[in-house]
Amino acid sequence: MLSQVKKIVAIASGKGGVGKSTTAVNLAVGLQQQGLRIGLLDADIYGPSIAMMLGVPENTRPQAINEKYFRPIEAHGLFTMSMAYLVTENTPMAWRGPMAAGALRQLLENTAWGELDVLVVDMPPGTGDIQLTLSQKARLAGAVIVTTPQDIALLDAQKGIEMFLKVNVPVLGIIENMAIHLCSQCGHEDPIFGSGGGAMIARDYDTQLLGSLPLDISIRKQGDLGIPSALSSKEEKIGQYYRDIAQAVVDELNKNHDSGGPEIVFE
C-alpha cells in the first residue's frame, strides 16, 4: 500500500560493488534521524542484503495482515521489507526477469507501509526489469546514483542516470563512494580510485554531488555487525558523512522535483 507514502526515492548504481546497499541503509538511517518516518525496501531480489546490514535475525518473517498484506519488519526505527524475510539465506533466486519484477511488485504494493515521509528503495545494480518496473509502478520523487571515482564505474553511472531520465524520473544527485582511503594507522588520505569523477558527472547532468564517502574499514565492520555507521555518535566523522548526505537529499526533495508532492517538514 503506497497511498500513505509521501515520497519514494530510488538508490541506484550502474554496476555492482560500489557500496550502493551500504549507502542506502545508512542514508535511510540518516533520514530517520532527521525526525522523519522512513521505510526501506530491498528491491535487489537476487541478492538482498539489508536484513544483515540492519542486524535483523535470520529466519525473521513478516506477519500477514488480512492474508493480503505484509507487516514491515522494524529495525533501528526503519520500516523494512526484503526478499530475505521470505526465503532462507541459502535459497538462490533463480528467476527470470519477469518473475523478479513480479516479486518486486508484491513487496512494494502488498506491504502495509503506513504513513511514511520517505520510502527508500535499494535497487539492484544495472538498468533492467526491476528498475523499469519500479518506475512504472510507483511515482518516484527521484533517484540517487551511487558511484565510485574510477572511469569504468562512472561510465556505468552515466547509463543509470540516462535510464532514469528516459522514464522521467529526476536525478536528485550523485553520491561518490570510496572517494578517499583513510589509513587506519596514520590517518593519511589517498584517492586510490581517482578523484573528481562524481562532481564531473553531477556537473554534466546538471545535478548535485550530494556527498563523497571515504573507503574506511569501520563502515564494513559495522555493516557486518548489523549496526549502520550513521548510528554512530555525532563526534564520529563517518556517521556525520551520512547525516550530511541525508540532509542534502531532504533539501533536494523539498524542491518538489516531482511537481506537486508534499514538502517534508521537520518538527
Order of helices and strands: EHEHEEEEHEHEHEEHEHH
- Residue share in helices? 25-40%
- Average per-residue pLDDT, rounded, comes to 85
**Number of strand elements:** 11
* Biggest sheet statistics: 9 strands, mixed
Q: In terms of per-residue confidence, which ranges show pLDDT below 50 for 5 or more consecutive residues? A: 259-267
- What is the beta-strand fraction? 15-25%
The CATH superfamily is identified as P-loop containing nucleotide triphosphate hydrolases
If you compute it from the alpha carbons, what radius of gyration comes out, rounded to the nearest whole angstrom?
17 Å
Give the assembly state of these chains: single chain
Our count of domains comes out at 1
Structural class: alpha/beta
CATH hierarchy, class: Alpha Beta
Number of helices: 8
Question: Can you name the CATH architecture?
Answer: 3-Layer(aba) Sandwich
Distance N to C terminus:
25 Å
